[in-house]
Amino acid sequence: MSKQSSTVDESSLPSVFQAQWTQNPDPTALPFPRENPPFPLTAIDWHQLSLTDAEFTPHSWSNLQHLISTHQLEELKRWPSALKAYLAWTAHVKDKYGSVMAYLLQQRLFWDPIEDETQALRFDVRNVVPFADEDDFKILRNDWGYAFEEGIWHVVVWLKQRLPVDEEGLLTEEGRRLVDEFVRKEFRENAGEMQGEEEGKVIWFKNTTNLQSVRSLEHIHVLVREVDQDVLERWRK
User: Fold this and answer.
1) An example of a Gene Ontology BP annotation on this entry (predicted)?
2) pLDDT score recorded for residue 233
3) What is the crossing angle of helices 14-22 and 80-97, to 10°?
């Protein structure tokens, strides 16, 4: 496979689609035929699509802590307008690139997969251990984050390696140890979170397979709050 181009596809930028649906004069409009959404929608999604942004209450930090600690990840919601924009964008990139994964590889990660007879998605890595080498992962802002109160930021850590999971797709004890150690060094220390701090400044989670919109690319989600702009910039690419 040839080297991925670094030319930005302006027409596919998430900000273009988000602006379109935030400014849409009909907040109940849908960017797809009701019977044919770009990806399967849950009852929660359909309810979100029936609301305006003004009718929706964003997630607070304490609410996020509760949902993530109790494994209620399906309850994490986007602003209604953002969900509409995400659906419109998904349909667009599937038509133009073939899949969301292809868009991410070509426009956000600039990673070239190894092609072999297995057809499995894999990459050349500098170290087989996840997070051990900076060339084997990338931290990017989440272009399609959930609806948060002001001051909460959402980034995604994309990995070339797979994290160890059990038969149900949940991180193993070793998998959690790897992530915890990476999050401590990269996020908690840089955010200035003190050990034992009551509500903390950092939360991380990994969606189970059924909740992942990009299943073939390994990634974890990290939420941060009360972080200085100069620190935040290192994670807002």
Assistant:
1) N-acetylglucosamine metabolic process
2) 85
3) 140
Phi, psi of 98 (to 5 degrees): 100, -30
CA dist., res. 103 & res. 140, Å (int): 14
Q: What residues does each domain of the chain span?
A: 11-112+126-235
Is the pTM value of this prediction over 0.70?
yes
Q: pLDDT tens digits for 58-109?
A: 999 999 999 999 989 989 999 999 999 999 999 999 999 999 999 999 999 9
195: buried, middle or exposed (CB in 10 Å: 19+, 13-18, 0-12)?
exposed
Q: What are the tens digits of pLDDT across the range 32-43? A: 999 999 988 989
Contacts of 156 (CB under 8 A, 6+ apart): 139, 140, 141, 142, 219, 220, 221, 222
Work out the mean pLDDT of the chain and round it to a whole number.
89
d(CA 206, CA 199): 20
Question: ∠ CA(35), CA(28), CA(147), 5° rounding?
Answer: 100
